[in-house]
Design a protein that fits this description.
With 191 residues, the protein is an alpha+beta fold. 15% of the residues lie in helices and 57% in strands. The protein has one domain: Lipid/polyisoprenoid-binding, YceI-like (Lipocalin). It contains two helices and eleven strands. Strands 1-4-5-7-8-9-10-11 form an eight-stranded antiparallel beta barrel. β7 and β8 form a beta hairpin. About 9% of the residues have low confidence.
């Protein structure tokens, strides 16, 4: 009986080690990662912008179907292609980058469809407030990058938020939508 229990404990320990070994850390590749936003403008067109500076990590356990992502976005790197509009978006009416220079998404609830990540739920910190957000994957894949000889995982994710939840209400009373679509194109390199 004692030998059986010891054998079971050894198998459990080895199994835990195998599952643990499947977990990997990936560094977000800023050259293949883009965070963009879209907001309706008076029902006539869509205003779009992006954040050019971002960094973070992803921990992914494909076998255990778990993970964690931390993505920090430099709000001062906001760009719409129109400098006066950028300045307005960066002031206290919107992103208030002087007081809140970064946005942060932390996701720790990964859902899978087979071996592909289908969504990541977590929180978005914007203007000093942290609220729940779920990013849904439009595509996800891992591949061996022939140039750098390492695995890269990534996908296209999106969600729609209500900006008023974070206290960003400027323009709501005269035609700017409360709904903002966030699109996160991300690739991360296995470390």
């Amino acid at each position: 009986m004692r030998k059986t229990l010891l054998a079971l404990a050894a198998v459990a320990t080895l199994s835990a080690g195998v599952v643990q070994a499947q977990s990997a850390t990936y560094a977000i590749d800023p050259t293949h990662t883009f965070v963009t936003f879209e907001i309706d403008h008076m029902g006539a067109s869509t205003n779009r912008g992006r954040f050019d500076k971002k960094e973070g990590t992803v921990q992914l356990d494909k076998a255990g179907k778990t993970g964690k992502v931390e993505l920090t976005i430099d709000a001062t790197s906001l760009s719409t292609g129109t400098p006066p509009f950028d300045k307005h978006l960066q002031n206290a009416d919107f992103f208030n980058v002087t007081q809140f220079p970064t946005l942060k998404f932390v996701g720790d609830k990964f859902s899978f469809n087979g071996d592909k990540v289908s969504e990541v739920a977590g929180t978005l910190t914007l203007l000093g407030k942290t609220m729940p957000v779920t990013l849904k994957a439009n595509k996800f894949n891992c591949y061996e990058n022939a140039r750098i000889k390492r695995e890269v995982c990534g996908g296209d994710f999106e969600t729609t938020i209500q900006r008023s939840q974070w206290g960003m209400t400027w323009g709501s009373n005269f035609g700017f939508s409360d709904s903002v679509k966030l699109v996160v194109q991300v690739e991360a390199i296995k470390q």
